[in-house]
From TrEMBL:
It comes from the Bacteria. This is Flagellar protein. The lineage of its organism: Bacteria, Bacillati, Bacillota, Bacilli, Bacillales. Residues 129-151 are annotated as: Disordered. Keywords: Cell projection, Cilium, Flagellum.
Amino acid sequence: MQPGQLDNCRICGKLFLRDHTDYCLGCYKITEQDFKLVSDFLSNEQNRFATIEEVSIETEVSVKQVADFIRDGRIYAEDYPNLGYRCSHCDKMIKRQLLCDECFQQFSSEINQTLKRENLVDEIRNTQNKHNKQNNQAKNTNMPQYWQLKK
């Protein structure tokens, strides 16, 4: 969607004029306040080793919102040894993307196998279609055509 168009807020669903965010002004302000709370909490040296659950409890910002800050790159989890969120598939602790490397590799190989199977099926169909066309052409050359019978 382009800037300056009407859209629904990703958080509350309210209709708003979209500029630079996916949120209406009210939700944007709340999100920024939450980010400031989390950022201030993590900037304190004694909180450097906090987990995402501890950050959530101390700042009263949801775990999902903190994970979104990390995923969006607003918080660099590599700077905090225990800060991360769960892989969407296996629940392993990760610091970037949606899937851990193992799940990503597994899904990638499954997708590649599926694509290879689909390509093989397409090739078989194409070969069958060519064979059927050749058979039909051979049959048609042996049979008299309407315009040939008219002579």
